[in-house]
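Q: How would the structure tokens look for this protein?
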Amino acid sequence: MKKLFLLLTIFLVVLGFSSCKKFLDEQPVSNGLATPPTDSVPYKSASEVEAALANVYSGFKDEYFELDYYVNGDAQSDDCYAGADNPANFQIDDYAIDATNSNVSRDWGYLYTIIGNANIVINNVKSVPDATLTTDRRNQIRGEASFIRAFMYFQLVQLFGDVPLQLKEVRTISASTLPDIYPLLFPARAPKADIYKRIIADLDTALLYVKPTAVHKGYVTTGAVNAVLAKVYATQEPHDWAKVSQYCDAVIAGGYALLPNYHMLWDNAHKNSVESIFEINYTGGSSDGNWGASMFRGMDWKKFDIPSNDLVKAFETEQDTVRKAASIIFLDVTGKWSDSHWPQNNYPFLNKWHNFASGSDQNYIFLRLADILLLKAEALNENGDLAGAASLVNQIRTRAKLTNTTAASQADMRLAIEKERRLELAFEGCRWYDLKRTGRAIAVINNATGVGGVSLGYNLTQNRLLWPIPQAEMDKNAKLVQNLGY
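A: Here is the predicted structure in token form.
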């Protein structure tokens, strides 16, 4: 009875979170088990299931993707300092995270909430009794939701390693259903290999059913699916470079092209461009404004993700004036705040998202062709095709008005591609994950330098390549085992 009481309490809490709130006031559902109506058919009409899918997509506009995605990928790397005044971000920046870090717990919650919402759609779209919902559209909905679920699990497995694999929703809680639902509410962590199998299975499902084009790049298309498959096969161990090449080639053949001017990607005048593969669209205003962009630039308070001395030096060493100017802007913040890394009269901000007003219509690009071209170059180099890799790297460098790469060996080309990805994709949430998947994170981070080339003194260790399981989750679920070193 004690277990039943606990489950009923959790059930009521989950139901409470299903009401509409402004996302800044929401407390994420930590176990991700979004609860549909107890009816055997959760969705009665096409409009209901379409609204449910829209709710799954809306996860890309929560705090994780508007802010934390970039903190995790950039401030956790050598490209940015944490900035602002949030102790949780300072821990991330200094590789000193603990299991009570508020960013860690909220990111776990946000990602599992989206997964829970996707589960309901995936598991119930076929049973919608509305005859106007065609078989093709049912399959498309399933494919789009499967992509989003895979995308969220890809975030989780890179951050935490082994994580619970939850694919079902809870319908009813009673004494008779307790044996079945208890493992859903209190799951153990699944091995990374199993998480990657599910990610790939979901992406394979998506590839079967989603369309090659959509109204705009905010909807899942075959290009987005192929791009994430390429990234997954480049990340999971062992890397499968043949698969990486296969899916990169599918993207490249999908009608995408580099924009002629690098600045066009960020001026907000070329939304959903031919280079963009997956891009979260905002119309602006109180109902659909990009709140996150205002977290990275402005004079009202000290912002997050301050460009690092190490990155600025990398741009300058390469004489990469085009991408430096597009990525970083230096402003005078005299009298507003101080910073040990930069003088007040020459203080850097992120410049890629040009509309930094709160509630702006600034789109976020999560996948684009340049990323995939450089990933293809990496695959070619790993398979011994140095010339093919160089050709792709040079495409990217030519747009940046740089000379061709001089890398003359496989080892040199690895470093050349790493550098090119850093400069091309700065502040796009990629750098930390690139360093991790190539096995270079510890060496690079521990050699990062600050003002005057002085070491920043980072002490990144193997255990700190993964985040801790949030302590709140450990306290609720005895089946969870903490990562080493926490």
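The chain has two domains: 2-210+463-476, 258-283+307-351+369-437.

The first strand starts at residue 80 and ends at 83.

Upvote if useful.
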